[in-house]
């Protein structure tokens, strides 16, 4: 049995949506790190506060059609900065034109009304103008679709559509990185601050597909790791779940986990990829909830490389390499947990802010063994062994047939333990600098996973998506051609299952 617990350094939920460049841009042509810091957003938004939008429309294969449509932009005083064309897949004898423009909302609407009478199909994707929300620069992606007179308008946040798109926001950390608050243990340590800057530079300059730079950790950093490693390894056999204890020795054998050695992220990433397809990539600090969950959709876990200050080895106000590698990473080698994590990530793509907050709240403590400060304690609670530590609580019954009924609320040390319910858990507020006054209990990992997937499936979104593991892209299921490919893949899988069953039965 598992009790869910909010950790002091797990993912913080914030109402923020990060924007990025559209997929029409060449992802290889990234702005420099220095220029990124000067930008308030990933988009190069014009100073006159106009928004950036991409208009995709379908015209018959005639020169006069294109000339007439371009004159519409000229008549409205809109400057075209980029244009592309391709044969239409859905309209025979037609071409699709992609035009990038900077314009005001009124101009966009006016052009849209004019073009809908000229074109076979019109789609407008609009970014901005950018505005600030709770200190974070955000932008909505507006999708306007029309097929002749049928107009459907949906507004959804931008989300990555291919794994390389993670490069567009991986260096947008909310807190820390190379900067430290005054109450941080390493605030006055100039040597520590310089090391943090080194780790931040590595993360900022990393791009998908590159090998993760190997770090030569100092003696002091390795000793800090060793203090935590030695204590936690004593506690894992009795306090960690079965899956965690199965995987951890494999990390020692394959990734260099030991008391005297801090594992390299590249070795860890290679191991996870062989186990479940998950990989890790370096990050300078805490990402927004939306960005962190988007990474999970591609089976990517953003991981810090720096280590907490040596003056406080058993406490960190932020996620460090100990928190990541000794807490989060092991379970990503478990197929069930990996699948669940990706499902949560996929559910977040294009979801509204309020849904992101709920998903992040649930994900921030769901089965994450996140060692923080205090040592673990073992209690006898009736016929159940209650395992308590600062990162997560687990309950193991002495009898496999025993279960905890959904209506029971128990109290441990005066703290209420409620039955796990995703809808309730997702809306529960919790302090991030102290232990929370409430915990949630699920009967098993599978039970909790089923509840969460069912709850996430009800998320309101104007489209469905599917992850293609071969191309590592997100497919938006919005036309019959894509659905036919999905059906074809499902049929092939079913035929393989049927053939295998026949061979096993003979």
UniProtKB/TrEMBL annotation:
Keywords recorded for this protein, A-Z: Iron, Metal-binding, Monooxygenase, Oxidoreductase
Superkingdom: Eukaryota
ACT domain ranges (all copies): 54-129
Annotated Biopterin-dependent aromatic amino acid hydroxylase family profile domain residues: 144-505
EC numbers, comma separated: 1.14.16.1
UniProt cofactor(s): Fe(2+)
InterPro entries named in the record: ACT-like_dom_sf, ACT_dom, ArAA_hydroxylase, ArAA_hydroxylase_Fe/CU_BS, ArAA_hydroxylase_sf, Aro-AA_hydroxylase_C_sf, Aromatic-AA_hydroxylase_C, Tyrosine_3-monooxygenase-like
UniProt binding sites for Fe cation: 323, 328
Molecular functions per Gene Ontology: iron ion binding; phenylalanine 4-monooxygenase activity
Enzyme class: oxidoreductase
Pfam hit, one: Biopterin_H
UniProt-listed PANTHER family: AROMATIC AMINO ACID HYDROXYLASE, PHENYLALANINE-4-HYDROXYLASE
Family designation: Belongs to the biopterin-dependent aromatic amino acid hydroxylase family.
Protein name, UniProt field: phenylalanine 4-monooxygenase
Species whose genome carries this gene: Trichinella pseudospiralis (Parasitic roundworm)
